Amino acid sequence: MTLRRLPRPQTGFTLVEVLVALAIVAIALMAGSQATSALVVNATRQTDVMLGHVCAQNELVKARLSRQLPAFGDTQSVCEQAGRRYQVVTTVSPLPNPQFRRVDAQVYDERYPVIRVSTIVGRY
User: Fold this and answer.
1) Residue 65: inside a domain, yes or no?
2) pLDDT per residue rounded down to tens, the chain (124 residues)
């Protein structure tokens, strides 16, 4: 008498289950890469703002240390900090009291504005 073997139940995953798992992993990896990209952009922006602030403060301190009222108008200069080049536009404008002048330092990174810092300089 021959024993008949019963068919073994199929084990493993179906194609649909594998595709669903693959789609879930792909979505999770895409979300992770977008989050990482956002962190890199924010860190770069924070570095630019910090270095741009140093450049702007240098121009404002230069205006204060000159010991005279700065002339009205715009001046441009280049500031290099940590290997990066920034364009600094310094604008001197009048105030209602002629003994004081407003000095704005606007810092640009290639094309985009980074930071604007202002101060008031008075006659010594």
Assistant:
1) yes
2) 667 777 777 778 889 999 999 999 999 999 999 999 999 999 999 999 999 999 999 999 999 998 889 999 999 999 999 999 999 999 999 999 999 999 999 999 987 999 999 999 988 6
Q: 105: which strand partners?
A: 90, 117
Give the integer Cα–Cα distance in Å for 17 and 6. Answer: 26
* 73-81: strand order across its sheet: 73-81, 84-94, 100-109, 112-122
The CATH number assigned to the domain holding 70 equals: 3.30.1300.30
Task: Indicate the pTM of the whole model.
Answer: 0.73
